[in-house]
Amino acid sequence: MGCWSRAAGTAFLGWFAPSRNASWLDVGCGTGAFTELVLDTCAPGSVVAVDPVGSQLDYARQRHVAGRASFRVADAQALPFPDRSFDVVASALVINFVPERLRALSEMRRVARPNGAVGGYVWDFKGERSPTEPLTIAIRQMGIEVPRISGTEDSSLEALRRLFERTGFDSIAVKMFEVTMSFIDFESYWRRQTPAFNPQAKIVATLSKRDRRRLKDTLQDLLKPRSDGSIVCSARANAIKACIPM
Q1: Distance (Å, whole) CA 62 – CA 73
Q2: pLDDT of residue 1
């Protein structure tokens, strides 16, 4: 999940304010980091977490959440659960990546119980405020094209609200979270921004040693480190939640 995502998840759960002992469905759980955050902070009665990628779930099952949550391979667009199965249905940093977002939200609504809650949050790719934006800008300044993030057009607060309204939700609330992170120096920041799975990191991996050095210099200029060498920067997450009527 990373330091950025964990901070956004903590802010989201504080605002989402789920009831204790609720039955949860974590949609698009990946490696289980948000699942772990739910277990550690929300006192759920039970948690089921789903993801379409089996290898992600294999990793999740190795975390210390194993035994405290149930992990299943499933597509957000066709959830394998009966109607009204869960008190809380949530999705962390996933909604914009789902190809058929309205279908996925309809499924999340279907499996939520009356008086339950459905919600999620995404990075603000539309507003160019994701944690990877400085690196993206630096790469583009070198004349290298960076592919557009999937679902960018549906990552704003307004777009999220429209998606929920079109799915038939009511009692909708939205919230923007500013997430600020500090890094002791540029190298610490660089390591956090370039894990192997990051699309921008894959571009970095193709660069020559000289071009990589040039990229790092460009990025460092953009970030404007403090006098002690530390770096403070922020990103924006957009969140939404809705209640299921009785």
Answers
A1: 15
A2: 47
Q: Phi and psi for 115 in degrees, rounded to 5?
A: 70, 10
Kindly report the backbone phi and psi dihedral angles of residue 222, in degrees, each rounded to the nearest multiple of 5, phi listed first.
-65, -40
CA–CA separation, 25 and 70 (whole Å): 10
- For residues 244 and 206, give the distance between their C-alpha atoms in angstroms, rounded to a whole number: 48
Closest CA to 153 of 202, 95, 198: 95
Distances (CA, A) of 231 to 11, 129, 188, 192: 21, 17, 9, 12
DSSP 139-200: HHHTT---PPPTTGGG-SHHHHHHHHHHHT-EEEEEEEEEEEEEESSHHHHHHHH--TTSHH
Digit-coded pLDDT (tens) for 194-214: 887 788 889 999 999 999 999
d(CA 75, CA 132): 26
Q: Higher pLDDT residue, 68 or 90?
A: 90
Residue 34 has pLDDT above 60, yes or no: yes
Tokens of 186: 């540029």
User: Which helix (H) or strand (E) is 108 found in, with range?
Assistant: helix 101-111
Name beta bridge partners: 50.
27, 72
Q: Record the pTM.
A: 0.93
Whether residue 107 has pLDDT greater than 60: yes
Q: Going by C-beta distance under 8 Å and a sequence separation of 6 or more, which residues neighbour residue 54? A: 73
**Beta bridge pairs of residue 242:** 118, 172
